[in-house]
Design the sequence.
């Protein structure tokens, strides 16, 4: 018998779960409060400029290929992935410019030119990063952590016994500093903790797997922009018979005697055998589910990832010194993270990320112009920091760019701004977090909400705040794992 599955949200996590379930013959309805799919991965198009509003770099392309394969996607239903080289161009306050390339020889040569003593450390660091990936990916990424019993069973046991080798007892910064002596290289590799919104001075060095994922498995641009991937997945879901209802705001997940019965959206009840929530896991468990205050408090206590402030700038003229992805570092990286995660205030001197898709797709900006996506990391929202001085942040961004010889004075012809409060209000993202739950503690992977909710039978979570975590490939995996849990439960 086909089960009826309700999915809350058409972000990457919801679309992935919907596709996996529909491909296995289930009847799937997706409820999305916005008028279009994508969630944080949205699109702004105005006066000849086109911007992605969220993710810009796609890693772990095989996760996407597996999703397409599971759905039997035809060649013309798949997006084109374009390797980006260099993956990122780094600008330092002392004038150093360093291209980080997936071509390891090229990367080694670039490092040798600025920090000869660290040239050989790149390969050694990536080997170390790869070892952690080999040890952890199966349990921490590709499967549900499930209950402790399952974790201690069979092939997981050897990994757990080798916990010291996954470097969980040092911080990211300590692991990186043990490999590199030049502070610029340390800063570069520390930055990867931000890929899931964490602090390199607090997050366990296990997160040092991310450089392996980016350099050796590859960083890709999605031809047409990240929103092309949203369109592709939404179209694939529709072709598989998924009913996506836009403008449908789910108010409540209805349960009876600890079992899901369906959802209430816009005052209407819809019965479902199972519900997968792609809405933020903390928001889901504290606002959509009825339950004991004590349980809700446990979810509220999970530290969110950082938030972000995005400027989408239409820029007149072209800036030849920039690549597709660029980072403009500050002098005092530690102080930036202390601002974000300890003082919970906007960084006084932020690192600036700039991505220009017109470098790969010229039609994303009018001739003689560029589309700049500019991101600054911000603290998650608290009562005290909700009133953000956007003008002050814009000034510090422009100052940082000027410091590297990039003068935008009078050249910004169009601007849209996305604030932490926008992320919270538009997507119900817990405290405006970008990636869900931070990984600032050694046991974060175990505290992160699991894909199967034990306290409410028939309820599942997919998305950045659920296992295995934030970022596009992991969120696609969370949809797959939630769908797997649904299938296990309805068939057995
Ligand atoms: C500025 C920025 C830059 C980023 N850069 C990268 C990057 O370069 N690479 C990368 O891999 N990742 C990046 N990320 C992270 C990535 O975008 C996210 O991890 C991913 O898109 C989250 O997907 P999701 O499905 O978990 O959640 P969301 O995208 O938040 O989707 C949840 C959906 O649920 C809907 N919803 C919520 N509540 C309800 C309700 N009550 N009823 C109905 N619908 C509801 C929302 O409207 C939304 O559409 C970035 C994110 C941001 C914001």
Sequence:
């Amino acid at each position: 018998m086909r089960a009826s599955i309700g999915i809350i949200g058409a972000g990457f996590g919801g679309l992935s779960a919907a596709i996996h379930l529909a491909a296995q013959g289930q009847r799937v309805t997706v409820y999305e409060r916005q008028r279009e799919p994508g969630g944080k991965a949205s699109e702004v198009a105005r006066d000849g400029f086109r911007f992605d509003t969220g993710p810009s770099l796609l890693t772990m392309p095989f996760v996407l290929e597996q999703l397409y394969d599971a759905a039997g996607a035809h060649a013309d239903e798949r997006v084109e992935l374009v390797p980006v080289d260099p993956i990122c161009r780094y600008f330092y306050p002392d004038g150093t410019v360093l291209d980080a390339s997936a071509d390891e020889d090229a990367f080694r040569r670039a490092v040798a030119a600025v920090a000869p003593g660290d040239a050989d450390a790149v390969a050694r660091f990536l080997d170390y990063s790869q070892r952690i990936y080999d040890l952890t990916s199966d349990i921490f990424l590709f499967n549900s952590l499930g209950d402790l019993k399952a974790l201690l069973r069979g092939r997981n046991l050897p990994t757990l016994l080798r916990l010291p080798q996954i470097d969980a007892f040092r911080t990211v910064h300590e692991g990186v500093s043990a490999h590199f002596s030049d502070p610029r290289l340390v800063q570069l590799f520390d930055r990867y903790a931000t890929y899931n919104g964490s602090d390199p001075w607090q997050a366990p060095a296990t997160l040092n797997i991310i450089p392996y994922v980016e350099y050796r498995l590859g960083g890709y641009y999605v031809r047409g922009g990240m929103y092309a991937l949203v369109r592709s997945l939404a179209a694939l879901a529709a072709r598989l018979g998924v009913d996506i209802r836009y403008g449908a705001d789910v108010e409540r997940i209805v349960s009876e005697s600890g079992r899901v019965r369906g959802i209430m959206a816009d005052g209407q009840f819809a019965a479902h055998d199972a519900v997968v929530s792609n809405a933020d896991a903390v928001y889901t468990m504290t606002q959509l589910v009825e339950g004991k205050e004590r349980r809700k408090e446990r979810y509220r206590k999970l530290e969110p990832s950082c938030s972000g402030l995005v400027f989408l700038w239409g820029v007149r003229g072209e800036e030849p010194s920039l690549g597709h992805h660029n980072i403009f570092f500050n002098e005092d990286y530690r102080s930036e993270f202390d601002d974000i995660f300890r003082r919970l205030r906007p960084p006084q001197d932020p690192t600036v990320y700039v991505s220009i898709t017109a470098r790969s797709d010229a039609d994303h900006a009018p001739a003689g112009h560029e589309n700049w996506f500019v991101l600054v990391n911000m603290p998650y929202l608290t009562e005290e920091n909700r009133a953000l001085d956007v003008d002050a942040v814009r000034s510090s961004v422009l100052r940082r760019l000027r410091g590297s010889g990039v003068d935008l004075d009078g050249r910004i012809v169009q601007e849209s701004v996305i604030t932490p409060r926008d992320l919270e209000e538009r997507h119900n993202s817990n405290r405006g977090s970008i990636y869900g739950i931070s990984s600032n503690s050694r046991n974060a992977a175990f505290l992160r909400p699991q894909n199967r909710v034990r306290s409410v039978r028939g309820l599942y979570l997919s998305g950045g705040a659920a296992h295995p975590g934030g970022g596009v490939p992991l969120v696609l995996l969370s949809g797959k794992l939630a769908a797997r849990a649904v299938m296990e439960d309805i068939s057995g």
Observations:
- The pocket of flavin-adenine dinucleotide is lined by residues 8-14, 31-34, 39-41, 54-57, 249-250, 278-279, 308, 310, 375, 427-429, 434-435, 463-464, 470-472, 475 (CB under 6 Å).
- Residues 81 and 444 are 31 Å apart (CA to CA).
- The first strand starts at residue 4 and ends at 8.
